[in-house]
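Friendly challenge for the regulars: who can give me the structure tokens for this chain first? No prize, just bragging rights.
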Amino acid sequence: MARLNDVVLIGKKVDGEMEPKIVSKRFTDGETANVVLNFLMKTYDEEAQRFITLPIAVWGEGLVEQCLLHLKQNDLICVKGELRYKFIYNRDTKQTERIFTTVKANNVEFLSKKMKTQNLHYYVNKVRLVGNLVDEPIQTEDGFVLAVDRTYPTKEASAPNSELTDFVTLILDEKSVLRGSLTKGSPVIIDGKLMTRKKRMDIIEPRIVVSVQEMVGV
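First reply, four minutes later:
Bragging rights claimed.
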């Protein structure tokens, strides 16, 4: 079954100086060493009536160079990309110390630059995923997990692509629309939005989750 991992955000860059980093091959899912630029952007949740701050990771020399050249604090931008799941593992304690989700930007549109003003207040927060349910989809504070596969290129001629899995935490509420077969292992289509939740000291969990607006079992 096809996999889908699409994120579209329109919001404003909120943090200060941007410093690109060189990331070794070890952390690029098998690809060659690459340059990455991390920054934060905020979008507005009309339903919750609050701003949400989200981490953005821009990969690749060309796109990073464009961001450094054109992107300023409080600029309105459109980011199109995908959710990425990461964790930090302590080899000494043999425990996962941190789990986090970020948005990997595949494209950035500089809306303030194109419209020649920063006085723009327009926000979009949309996520569409296709994957398999790791847990039973129940409405709890902890949520449940969706597995979304992705491929990355390799140097092997016989197997040019290898597969990784991103684990995305989903949250249901009373407004979520659920249809079709929704059990552990089921393939599903998700429409939703990104949201943040308070960090809890008693459990290791990602702060960035997907609030489900509609989930359809296939």
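The longest strand covers residues 95-110. The helical segments are 61-70, 111-115. Your move, everyone else.
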